[in-house]
């Protein structure tokens, strides 16, 4: 099973809040209250999202975190990569200088990329808006499926 960690799920929740309430700015404590997540978790996630340029941090009396990007323009792959790093279903697909010890004799060497690209493309095809409005996303999916079957 491919499973995302909880921090990635929390990132979706925080991004959903910030992107759907732009131009409002939120302190970590306000985000915590609105999402029910602990302040240290919110601070950690916001720092990662800010580093990935998915949210911005304003300083000063009117500061706080905010997201200028519409939920329709943020895809799930960007969120996952911001929190977990590059999407790779097996270790040899990760961007790293460490070579697999069996790479020279591996029958699958390079062939996992097709599966990895399919997963990446699937995650890129789902926007934050789709997660915030699942009914609309399901309508679109059902329409697309109906068109394919006719």
Mean pLDDT: 83
Please provide the count of β strands: 2
What is the top-level CATH class? Mainly Alpha
The amount of helix comes to 40-55%
Number of helices: 7
Low-confidence stretches: 144-150
Q: β content, as a range?
A: under 5%
- Remind me, CATH topology? Arc Repressor Mutant, subunit A
Taken from the alpha-carbon principal axes, the silhouette is elongated
What does this 3D model show about the protein?
By secondary structure, the chain is mainly alpha-helical. It has a single domain (6-149), classed as Winged helix-like DNA-binding domain superfamily/Winged helix DNA-binding domain (Arc Repressor Mutant, subunit A, Orthogonal Bundle), CATH 1.10.10.10. The protein contains seven helices and two strands. It has helices spanning 6-20, 28-35, 39-51, 76-84, 113-124, 128-132, 134-149; strands spanning 56-58, 64-66. It has a two-stranded antiparallel ribbon. It starts with 5 loop residues before the first helix and ends with a helix. 16% of the residues are buried.
Present the secondary structure layout:
Elements: H1 6-20, H2 28-35, H3 39-51, E1 56-58, E2 64-66, H4 76-84, H5 113-124, H6 128-132, H7 134-149
